[in-house]
Design brief:
Helix content is 50%, strand content 0%. The radius of gyration is 14 Å and the shape is globular. It is mainly alpha-helical. The protein has one domain. The N and C termini lie far apart (44 Å).
Length: 140
């Protein structure tokens, strides 16, 4: 029987694969030694919250409104097949890549799920965990 190895983002409770950049994220694990490049969170809800916060910052600080703009910044071509990523997220949201989005709670939940799926090849979290994390991002 083959042993299943979880993707790095799932192992790190960081399903958005946020890079360690000095941000003092809520819910960071006190032990960051397990991964030299990516954040490690205490629980998945904190990693999902951080992902949602990044997306909200893209809208509020950088004025990004379309899947192409958001994913273009989130997953730049130097490290990703950005066009494929943009297309996958837009399909999951049921929108065109250049359609302006209202990044309300419902859209944010769907975008977070799409990014988790793309980053990890699966989206293993319950709707409750995702909703809780997004609500935490919206209020804190």
């Amino acid at each position: 029987m083959a042993v299943s190895i979880l993707p790095r983002g799932i192992r790190n409770h960081n399903p958005g694969n946020l890079v360690r950049d000095g941000t003092a994220w809520k819910g960071l694990s006190s032990d960051q030694t397990g991964d030299t490049r990516f954040c490690v969170f205490k629980e998945p809800v904190w990693g999902v919250r951080a992902l949602a916060k990044v997306l909200l910052t893209y809208r509020s600080t950088h004025g990004l409104k379309t899947v192409a703009q958001i994913i273009g910044r989130y997953a730049p071509p130097v490290e990703n097949d950005t066009n494929a990523y943009v297309g996958a997220v837009a399909r999951r949201l049921g929108v065109s890549v250049n359609e302006a989005l209202e990044l309300d709670e419902a859209v944010l939940i769907q975008m977070v799920k799409a990014i988790i799926q793309h980053e990890n090849g699966r989206q293993p979290y319950s709707d409750l965990v995702i909703a809780q994390a997004v609500q935490m991002a919206l209020i804190r």
